[in-house]
Design a protein that fits this description.
Strands 3, 6, 8, 9, 10, 12, 14 and 15 form an 8-stranded antiparallel beta sheet that branches. The protein has 5 helices and 15 strands. Helix 2 runs parallel beside helix 4. The protein is an alpha+beta fold. A hairpin with a 3-residue loop joins strand 8 and strand 9. The structure holds zinc ion. The site of zinc ion has 7 residues, from loops.
Length: 323
């Protein structure tokens, strides 16, 4: 309800109604509203420069939390790196060293990614550096774990080969060692039992009653089991691989056939006196790359140091061989 306003007219000496044009009123109202709106916008703009809105406060809180979390993640990355370094150190200085593999250099273990920039998508923000650095570290860590894992695969293969090698080469006495006096004659110059001449004896003789079991001294494949080699009589040859062959001569009999696979300790035949032999005994030889070598160094598998000393003494006696 609008109030009616009056004014005093000096000419007519009376009060007269103030007549205002409707259009003018509308104009005033519009101007006032526009000015108010401008002022409000101005105030909001100024305020927004200095005062955070609740939403902005929320976002900035979230951002600082995110920065904190990134820092914490980087700390955990440090710990992961330290743990990996420990494994790498053991890998290089124990495992790889033990199996005679070259250590993996640090440059190879810490190699990054060359070529295109993988981190372009993180660039152009205030936090880009933090995000890029964190991603880079994680990538290098992932790669280092792969390198370490491959190294362990390699070590596992080397270990398996070494185990196979150790199982293959001759390492025990071919007859039971309960009585070392069975070792009758060693490798070296000995008196020939038939001609009585001084002659090189290329193996070791173990005396034992006919029928005493003979054992394979290492894993391998039967290369020969026959009676057709001069002097040896019935004999067996085992190919152990890695250049090693063992030979068992003058057998009474054998219970293996050619190409049969045998394990160390398998019973392969029995002591006899076939071929050029004076009395029942086992003549034992070891070949390395086709050359006959002294079998004395291949009994470490089941002899104590004292027993080995005793055997060594007996083997070096320059007596008469049984051939
Ligand atoms: Zn002999």
């Amino acid at each position: 309800m609008s109030k009616v306003k009056y004014y005093y007219d000096h000419e007519t000496l009376s009060y007269r109604k103030i007549q205002r044009k409707k259009r003018t009123t509308v104009k005033y109202v519009a101007l006032f509203m526009l000015a108010s709106a401008l002022f409000a916008f101005l105030m909001i703009f100024i305020a927004s420069q200095f005062i955070e809105s609740p939403r902005e406060r929320e976002i900035s809180r979230e951002l600082s939390n995110m920065r904190l979390q990134y820092k914490l993640l980087n700390k955990r990355l440090d710990e992961a790196y330290a743990a990996l370094e420990n494994v790498e150190e053991r890998d290089n200085s124990i495992y790889r060293l033990y199996f005679e593999a070259n250590p993996i250099p640090l440059e190879q273990r810490r190699a990054g990614f060359g070529g295109i920039n993988r981190y372009k998508k993180y660039e152009g923000y205030d936090n880009s550096k933090l995000i890029v650095e964190s991603n880079k570290r994680l990538d290098v860590l992932e790669k280092a774990i792969v390198v370490q894992s491959k190294s362990l695969d390699e070590v596992a293969v080397l270990a398996e080969n070494k185990e196979k090698f150790l199982a293959a080469i001759p390492a025990i006495q071919p007859v039971s060692n309960e009585d070392l006096t069975r070792m009758a004659s060693g490798y070296g110059f000995r008196t020939d039992p038939f001609t009585k001449a001084r002659k090189f004896h290329y193996g070791m003789d173990f005396t034992a009653p006919r029928g005493t079991p003979i054992y394979a001294t290492g894993d391998g494949i039967i290369e020969r089991a026959d009676n057709s080699a001069t002097g040896y009589g019935k004999h067996i040859r085992i190919d152990h691989g890695y250049g090693y062959v063992s030979l068992y001569a003058h057998l009474y009999n054998y219970n293996v056939r050619v190409n049969q696979r045998v394990k160390r300790g398998d019973l392969i035949g029995y002591v006899g006196s076939t071929g050029r032999s004076e009395a029942p005994h086992l003549h034992y030889e070891i070949f390395k790359d086709g050359e006959r070598i002294n079998p004395i160094n291949f009994y470490y598998g089941n002899l104590s140091p004292e027993e080995f000393d005793e055997l060594l003494k007996r083997a070096s006696l320059e007596n008469q061989s049984l051939d």
